[in-house]
Amino acid sequence: MKKVLLTGFDPFGGEAVNPSWEAVSQLHQRKLDGIEVEAIELPTVFGKSFQLLQQAVLEFKPDVIICVGQAGGRSDIALERVAVNLDDARIPDNEGNQPTDKPITFDGPAAYWSTLPVKAVAAAMREEGIPASVSYSAGTFVCNHLFYNLQHMIASSSHEMKGGFIHIPYLPAQVAERPGVPSMSLDVMAKAIEIAIKSSV
Fold first, then answer.
1. Which residues cross the membrane (predicted)?
2. Which residue of the set 22, 145, 152, 167 is catalytic?
């Protein structure tokens, strides 16, 4: 049986919820077409987020790792294609860290490509009526930090794995007081992640 590890983040930036964790937790310990799914919540903290991901990978030994994060203001599911070797935080993380213009790792390349089939996953989502696209910027906050470290780990590992990062919009409740800001329902986001799991495996 194939194993997929999902990750979402805790709330940050003054938000009461983080849709990434709300969505991936819908699929926790589910069996999807012979695929075993595990989901974990990570802190929105540089360094610590990846340490906990590493621990989960060692314990669960997944074939595919899909990390999910909130991208407030985006209107669709964004399949991130590239992670850059840069921490440059516009706001502090949840422990007050705010690195500026710092490499994530000194012995890694400037960037890594996702090892998920991002174009195929986005197409499969759109076929199900879910707005989705391939994105070429995961930012320089904790999402990109985790994404880059994930790809660096995969590139350095003897265990064959695929992995990547998906950004999702706000939930409707998060934009109730923000006219004109896009959102997406939890059910649709969870369905999109389910499609990503099946397409990637």
1. none
2. 167
| 16 CB neighbour count, 10 Å cutoff | 8
**Does the CA dihedral 71-20-14-175 come out positive or negative?**
positive
The domain containing residue 11 runs over which residues?
2-200
Of 81, 63, 68, 79, which Cα lies nearest the Cα of 23?
68
Number of domains in the chain: 1
Tell me, what's the pLDDT at 159? 85
Q: Which of 22, 143, 145, 152 is catalytic?
A: 143
- We report the CATH number of the domain holding residue 74 as 3.40.630.20
Return the pLDDT at 66: 98
Work out the angle at residue 196's Cα, subtended by the Cα atoms of residues 23 and 45, and round it to the nearest 5 degrees: 50
**Residue at token pair 């495996």:** 201
C-alpha 10/C-alpha 39 separation (Å) is 13
Whole-model pTM? 0.96
